[in-house]
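REQUEST ID: PR-0412
SUBMITTED BY: lab tech R.K.
PRIORITY: routine
TASK: structure prediction, single protein chain
INPUT:
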Amino acid sequence: MSQPLPSQIQLRRDRPVCRRMFVLLFVLLAGFSLVTWRLAVIHIKESPRLSSLAAKKYQRHIVLPAHRGAIKDFNGEYLAHDEDVSELYTDRTHLREIITVRHHLAAVRGMKALDLRGQLDEAQTIAAYHDHVARVLAGILPQPEAEIRSQVASDKPEIVLAKQIDEETAKQWAVLFKAEHIFGIHMRPTVARRFPAKDRLSLVLGDTDTSNKGRWGVEKLMDARLAGVAGEQFIERDKSGNELPAYRGSVVEPQNGSDVHLTIDMQLQDNVEAICERAWKANNARRVVIVVTEPATGTVLAMAARPHRDVSNPDLSTWTNHVIAEPYEPGSIFKVVTLAAALDNHKVTPGERIDCGQMFYEDPVRKVKLSDDEPLGMQTVKGVLVHSSNIGMYKISKRVGQDLMLDYTSRFGFGAVTGIGLMGEKAGYVNTGRWSNTTYSRMPIGYEVSVTPLQMCMAYGAIANGGVLMKPRLIDRVVKPNGEAEVIPPQPVWQACTAKTAASLRDFLEGVVLEGTGSRAAVPDVRVGGKTGTTRRYDPEKKRYIDGAYLTSFVGMAPIDNPQLVCLVMLDDPQAESSKMIRGGRVAAPIFAEVVRETLDHLAIRNQRPIKVAAKGGAQ
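STATUS: complete
OUTPUT:
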């Protein structure tokens, strides 16, 4: 049976209901459309911006610091290394995020966040929380509370509050921060450079800057090999600051730097340092320098100087590495350069006799005056060096001439840096221009020329090494993190003189110790050769030589028939009862002998045919 159609009366009665239904339908459609449009805007158009805000608030980019390679001595003793530490820093985003701040401040006050919201507005809540954070941090940091408060409230994205926090302290602080509901103050891992060597070799090792990059010394020289590559990791935290392991990003592991091993043996270095310290104090000298090298390779075995850098009080101690950075007039130890030029170019022969006169001499042409400590009369060329005759050496230099003299000065490495690579090295001074009459007479005997102790040590190394000048070798090897070692090979510079001339000079230098001015440098059971040097001290400010002030030195090698070491000892302005006592043979030579004994004992070097050497007095 069919349903009857509604009447007009019924339709008119239902019309308002239909309108309300249509209105409701329109409202629903409009609402859903608005929501759909807003969702589309959020998920499509504003997605990058909102994702960035969320990441900034909850995600952290953690830098995983790489360890800088260690610096070690030849035997592997640590001289400088990195240590894992932490640093404390502020996070502006977390310290200003009102919901997080209100939650933690309410916990501090023992109340609900909703109740706190009714008591304090946003600005008051943030200010109160900053006060709480500053008050807690003032209890563990050295800064005053007011300063910490300004740093916590700063507009800067982050401020480092404390550095080099050790592991135990970091754990204690983490517990404190959790108990005090401190959020927005974080700790992150970093590294700190440690120097267990302390004062030892401090001017050689150098230092690093705040970013752990080498500033000077070996740290700067080998920075590219020591520096590692930092890693990274992204982590995500919840609103309470706890890490969410499930959202931890991939980790790029840091690559540690390579270890650098010096040629210096710290056991020997310590012995040399002790000798240097005693000599400095005993002679009341302005400075004392001792350098020990291996002539065949140019290897630096030890280098010490006083005064040196006190790492605990650096501002009141010297920053000058006297081994490479403070040239001086060498005096008679420079005479081997004059002799090398003369012998190499056949201007003299070893047995030729030279008239050294009766202590005083005046050149009839150049009108320059020279003197010796004693009348020497006729001497062989060897005797001129053995007795350190200024008169005889000048007469030999007249045959050599300026051009050859300058050539051999350059050949032996003077007037240029040695290439050891340390910052601050000086080249010294050589007059390559027009010479005066005094230059002709003074430079061949070691005046009007300035050298560094390392330059002189390398020059005598050439004499010990068959005439081959070597580049000083301070780095022995570089060891990568995987254990692979790269040995730094010796580097010859050039042939400074012939091997024949070098052999003659070694014989001359042994004569200096056996029968000349260097008898106090003798070492029992070892054949030693070397040369004494004594120069008047020049005052660059007053531009004159100082009466009664001298620089004394001795440089030599052992064993003389197969030299395994070269050693230089220099004392600047040593004090004695009389100026006659201040001579290289009296002051520096005995120190040389002590260093040689220590070095030979350490290296177990002994001559195949030991001889007994009796100590004799000497004038120079």
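NOTES: Residues 606-620 have pLDDT under 50 and may be disordered.
REVIEWED BY: pending
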